[in-house]
Write a structure and sequence with these properties.
Length: 175
């Protein structure tokens, strides 16, 4: 196993093993006594596990390693990818996080992402964009409250990320 993607390898192995268990008649969900005492979809279970173990940054770092190796085959500059990973990590709702954060990007990444989601892609524009992520707007001090409100209730709504009300855009040079 490559040392630089150990977390991703563990996740892949979990899903391989879990899929095999389902094919052999096992349950389609993962029971967790620790996290609300319920059965979780496998992806939600892994998200909770990474958060509980404090490994979400490691997950993002390893995704960066793999994605840079793919992008590196067609481009030498992976700066925009690095910015996207940093922005994504800042936007993921986590328990115990209360401080707001400013993420500076060299292009309009969040607007581009949102435009693709609605099926009306816009072009990336080279410009300094500062995303103020207001993480203090939604906080969870209790891990099980976070599991319930963000993961369980929020999954189908895509509520893992701080939404537009929590993200303010400041364009450099525009006041």
């Amino acid at each position: 196993m490559r040392r630089d993607i150990r977390c991703l390898a563990e996740i892949r192995n979990f899903f391989d093993d879990f899929a095999r268990e389902i094919q052999e008649g096992g349950p389609e969900y993962v029971y967790s006594k620790e996290w609300l005492g319920i059965y979780w979809p496998a992806d939600e279970y892994i998200f909770i596990k990474l958060t509980d173990e404090g490994r979400l940054q490691q997950f993002h770092d390893e995704c960066g390693v793999l994605l840079r190796s793919l992008v590196g085959r067609v481009a030498t500059d992976t700066g925009l990818l690095d910015e996207a990973l940093k922005l994504n990590h800042a936007l993921v709702k986590q328990p115990g996080v209360r401080e707001d954060i400013l993420v500076s990007c060299s292009q309009n990444l969040l607007e581009f992402y949102r435009s693709v989601l609605v099926g009306e892609p816009i072009k990336l524009k080279p410009q300094t964009v500062n995303y103020a992520v207001k993480r203090s707007a939604e906080t969870w001090t209790d891990f099980n409250d976070w599991c319930r409100e963000v993961v369980w209730y929020g999954n189908k709504k895509g509520a893992y990320l701080y939404g537009s009300a929590a993200v303010q855009v400041e364009y450099a040079g525009h006041y």
